[in-house]
Amino acid sequence: MTATAIRSGILRRRLVQQLTRDGALRSRYWHEAFSAVPRELFVPRFTRREGSDLVTYRAGDPDYLAAVYSDVSLNTRYDIHGTAVSSSSQPSMMARMCEALAPAGDRLPVLDLGTGPGYNAALLCHRYGSDRVVSRDVDPNIVTDAAKHLAEAGYSPTLTLGNGAEGCPGNAPYGALIATYGTGRIPDAWRHQVARGGNIVANIGNGLVALTIGDHRSATGHFLPSLAAFMRARPTADAAPAPARTYAGTVATATGHMQEIELSAAPGEDMPQFLGSLVHPDVVDFSLLLDGQSVHCLAHPRSRSWARITPGPDGTARLDHGGPRNLWAERAPLISRWAAADQPNADAYSLTVYPTGQHELRLGDSFWSLPE
Fold first, then answer.
1. How many other C-beta atoms lie within 10 A of the C-beta of residue 209?
2. Which of 87, 88, 89, 305 is catalytic?
3. Which of 127, 215, 248, 313 is deepest in the core (most CB within 10 A)?
């Protein structure tokens, strides 16, 4: 065994120990999978964020293996705007999602949407066997690279090319489905391709949810305690949505309606952002520093609606907004209800997706029908 292989094994064990201490890894099966699969085989070159910088690592660099086995997302591909479109996701998030998987039966395949470098597919192969894993990505170059990485690691899942929103009908039904990219709503195809009693584990908005398939292809379950915002779904390999900075100048200088509002929580905090992402799957959230003060901004490109929320020192804020929609008014009721309920974590919320596709969010006795 080479010195590199020995060091890889040591660092992998340390990461597994960390994930176990933090509660991300709980079961023997996933503990074994994360212990067995060498992450470096899937990311021979990547960048990761270090402070305000993106640092590139390549196999053979002095700190390469230490970076590979850090609990952070490792970006492997970017679009024309410089936005990351493929990565090896943060191991703790992957572990929590894998632990939430509960396939129906022990023979149906598991569908992995968002192949990326192939590391998550390898973990699934180790847990369920390569013959029970189907993985799909929209980008042919990503699928080609993942196939090489998986073969080198000794795994051979079924790799397919296509839009993840369509699931993968050719290999259905599935015992479970895991999607490692962000989506605004659970696509109908997912509910129809997972067997009754199986589940869907996905990143919707800024939350991670585990939904069990019930009668008539309904799906219901709770959000996991951890929040996450994965890379957004791409309908095609060359899709490159405009990044948030595109709207910064317009929102910063726009004039419209102005009013004073009460703030039950800072709009940029994690839970208000989580609730906002569920109400607004197609609204861009970002913060700006205007006149030395942090301002939270919302932009809805399709309707050209926008909002600026400038917090004051006494629990109030100045709301400036324009366009046909008052974006802040649409999400404020959920944030107020969360604050009145003593600011619970995300796992206090449940989600039901009805056979019609309608999404309903619940907190205790309160419920909200989420817009399409």
1. 27
2. 89
3. 127
CA–CA–CA angle 322, 328, 331 (5° rounding)? 145
Looking at the fold, whether 102 and 43 belong to one and the same domain comes out as yes
CA–CA dist 286, 296 (Å, integer): 6
CA dihedral over 262, 266, 268, 271, signed as positive or negative? negative
The Cα–Cα gap between 352 and 78 comes to: 34
Q: DSSP 3-state helix, strand, coil percentages of the chain (rounded to 5)?
A: 35, 35, 35
- Does 354 map to a domain? no
For residue 3, name the pLDDT band (cuts at 50, 70, 90): confident
CATH code: domain of residue 318: 3.30.160
Reading the block at residue 133, the tokens are 């894993």
89 is catalytic: yes
- Report residue 81: phi and psi, to 5°: -90, -5
Q: Residues 120, 33: one domain?
A: yes
pLDDT of residue 51: 86
| pLDDT (mean) for 311-333 | 95
Q: How many residues does the chain have?
A: 372
d(CA 327, CA 338): 18
Query: What backbone torsions phi and psi does residue 360 show, to the nearest 5 degrees?
Result: -125, 125
Whether 74 and 212 map to the same domain: the answer is yes
Cα–Cα distance measured from residue 207 to residue 192, given in angstroms and rounded to the nearest whole number: 22
Provide the phi-psi class of 291: left if phi over 0, else alpha when psi is between -120 and 50, else beta: left
Strand, coil or helix: 316: strand
At 229, the pLDDT band (50, 70, 90 cuts) reads confident
